[in-house]
Structures are given as structure tokens and as C-alpha cells.
Amino acid sequence: MLSEQENELLTHVGPGTPMGELLRQYWLPLLLSTELRERDGRPKRVRLLGEDLIAFRDSEGNAGLLANNCPHRGASLFFGRNEERGLRCVYHGWKFDVSGSCVDMPNEPPESNFKDKVRARAYPCRERNGIIWTYMGPRDEPPQLPELELATVPETHRWIRPSVRECNWVQALEGDLDSAHSSFLHSVLRTEDLGTHHTDRYTGDKPRFDVVETDYGVMIGVRRTPDAEHFHWRISQFVAPIFTMFPPTGQGTETIPGHIWIPIDDETTLVWSFAWHPSRPIGEDEPFRRNSAGRRDGRVFGDAEGYLPATTAAAGEWRFAANRSNDFMLDYDAQKQSRFSGVPTVTLQDSAMTTSMGAVTNRPNEHLGSTDAGIIRMRRFLLRAMRALQEQGATPAAVDDPSLFRVRSASGLLPRNVPWLEGSKDWVVARPDLPVVSV
Fold it and tell me: Cα dist. 383→9, 88, 172, 217, 241 in Å?
């Protein structure tokens, strides 16, 4: 278990906090490009790592990210006019470009150079393949973008679906490192109820966990015994600081699934659910493609995963209608007859469990077992990296080596006499010419 102090260190992400400073070493996903569709279009509220920010796309198509409050007298730039390569505060007309430079100050005398002395706080943005990233760290010259395969394939080769989870990012993330829960939470009671999003029948299966730390994070091998000659290995990845990949589900599945856990603040997380194919578009008839990026109609998963009406609040278009206020549509009849949990979908089942722990779970009260090994090592990895940065100024390895992000999850059979790390070494490499391993 963690101490109360360690739990606070792990979960607090605001400016000046040790974990917040660690997260700011990395490029972080900010928005889908589709969320800033138009040049000189509407500004958008963003909240990231506890900071209130305004995103916009300027006249040249560049994405910008400024502090919410105008440096003049603090009015929100959300109300600003996005025009002629900058965002103009409507209160007194001060205008700022994507770098934060004040490029116009119309209420000052023409001979004044005051505008050259004023800057808005701005964070650099980079856009690649439909994803806008931002760097909130201390370097004047940011590191290179991470070579996460999800972010390097064309938009047609992946889907991304955002949603908001009302809890701390770490406890939300930990569910992806815990393969044991899928045999219970996501299972069904009858074989005839098996389907695309409920793929396990409840059996009380007892998996064995093996966990290794890597330069980029943690890799978890979960072993089950399907027959007398093989072990079935499900391999998950934690790629620091906020990326997880869990094993493809279903024989012959060709897409890699996972999540990006973007901390809005200490008590709220923006989750990007994703899947990608390394070398071809995801077909319209494939479930992941049907639920393509930015769709808000909920048709793929039914009404349960439909969104609430969009608002202009930060992440205000990505809040599910099924949430804490209605117990995530828990159905006790379904719990008795078909779904082990009684909650309609996999996503909502995970959300119900992690938010039910409280906004920030009290980890000193935990009693962890052997299947929590991946979670334990992930916490240690983050705490050690945070302390190394704080005490020694040590930058995490993956910040300056973007190739370390080139990994995948996998699911496959190995002979019992083959060590899983050796037998799976080609399964977990992200390379277009290597097929996804899913058995």
C-alpha cells in the first residue's frame, strides 16, 4: 500500500506539484484536430493539469494554447475575437498570437512600446495526423513528439473516442493494468450473451501475473492455462506517463486497443479510448471504425453511452448520459440474469468502479493481492521518476528518446517451456510490417 504522503504525490498534478512537474516533461495530447475545425473559428475552453486554458486555431491554421485570463486585467480569452493571426480580448482589444506575444494594444498611444513588454502565458502546440499535442514543460526547445504508433498512423487507420471520468487519472488508469477484473466485471453469466463488448463468460478464472519495468514504463504478462501444452499470455503496456494498451480481444483481432488518461485536474480525467491498425484503414464494418472519432450519437453502444448535450465548458461535449448521478444505468435484473455487474457496457462498468472509489481513492486503506502487481510497479515507476526529477533533475528516458513509445499490447499462445519475454519479443514491437498478435 502507499502512504498518505505518497498518495498525494501520485495524484496531484497542478503547477508546482512534483507529479505535475513530471507530467509537464512530456508532450501531452490536447485535442483532436476536429475539435478546432476552422481557422479563425471559435475559441475552446481547455482544462489540463489543473490549469484553465483557451485553445484556438489562427488564420494560418496553427493551433494555439493560451492561459484563460488576459494578462491585462484577467478577463477570459474564451470571449475573444479570433482574427488575423491572433486572439483579441474583447474587453480592451489586446491581441495575442499563438506564441503569447502581444501583437496589438489599441488602447495605448501609438508611440507606446508597452505591448512588447506584455505576454500571455502560452504553451507550444504541434499537430500530427489529427491530434494536437501541447508541451507545458520548462524547455525553450521542446523535445520531439513521441512515436506512439497510434499517433503516427493515418486517421483512417484508427478511431479515438473521448469521454470524461469523474475521478483522479491514476485510479482510472489502473484498471487497464488489472487483467483479473475482466473475468468478473466484464463477464456474462450465459454463453448466449457473449458479444463484441462482453467477451468473457464468468468462470472465476485465476490468472498469474508477471511484471517487468522498462525504460518507457511497465509491461505486464498475464498467464492463463488453456490446455496441457500451452500458456495463454495477455500482455498489457503502461507507457509513461498516461498511455495504456490492453490486449486485443478475440481471436484474429487486428487492432490494438487502449486509453490515454489526460488529467483535467486532480479529480477529473479526460479519457481517450482508442484502437488502431498498423498498416490499413479500419473498415466501416469493424466495430471500432463504426464508433469513429468525434461521433456523439452513441449508436454503436446504444443509448447507455450516448453523450449529454454539449456545453462550452472544458470537455463539455464528452460527458456520458450514464454517470454517477444515475448509477451508470445499473440494472439488477440484468445482474441476476445476464451481465455479471448489471451495468450495460464495458466502458460504463470501468467508470462505475473507478468513480465509486471517490474522486481520489484512499490508497493507504487498500489490501493489494498478487493480481495487483502491475499496478504496484506502475506506481513505483511514476514515484521513482518523479523523485529523480525533483531531487536530481533527471529527465525520464522516453522524453528524449521518442522511439521508446513504439510498443504494442498482444495476446497469444506460447509453449509452456518458452519464457514469455523471449517468446513475445516480436509481438510487442510497433512496426507496420509486423501483424498484430491476437489469439
Answer: 8, 41, 17, 12, 11
Distance between CA atoms of residues 212 and 433, nearest Å: 26
Distance of CA 189 to the CA centre of its chain: 31
Mean per-residue pLDDT over the chain, rounded: 91
Q: Domain extents for the chain?
A: 27-135, 149-423
**DSSP bridge pairs for 425:** none
Sequence-distant (6+) residues with CB within 8 A of 211 are 218, 219, 220, 221, 373, 374, 376, 377
Distance CA 57, CA 82 (A): 8
Q: Which CATH architecture has domain 149-423?
A: Alpha-Beta Complex (3.90)
Q: What percent of the chain has pLDDT over 70?
A: 91
| Residue predicted with more confidence, 71 or 289 | 71
pLDDT for 339: 84
Say if CB 34 and CB 294 are below 8 A apart: yes
pLDDT band at 370 (very low <50, low <70, confident <90, very high): confident
Residue 301 has pLDDT above 60, yes or no: no
Q: How many CB atoms lie within 10 A of CB 429?
A: 13
| Cell numbers standing for residue 256 | 490494438
In this structure, which CATH number among 3.40.120.10, 3.40.50.300, 2.102.10.10, 1.10.8.60 belongs to the domain 27-135? 2.102.10.10
Q: Give me the amino acid identity at 375.
A: I
pLDDT, residue 80, reads 98
Rounded mean pLDDT, 169-187: 88
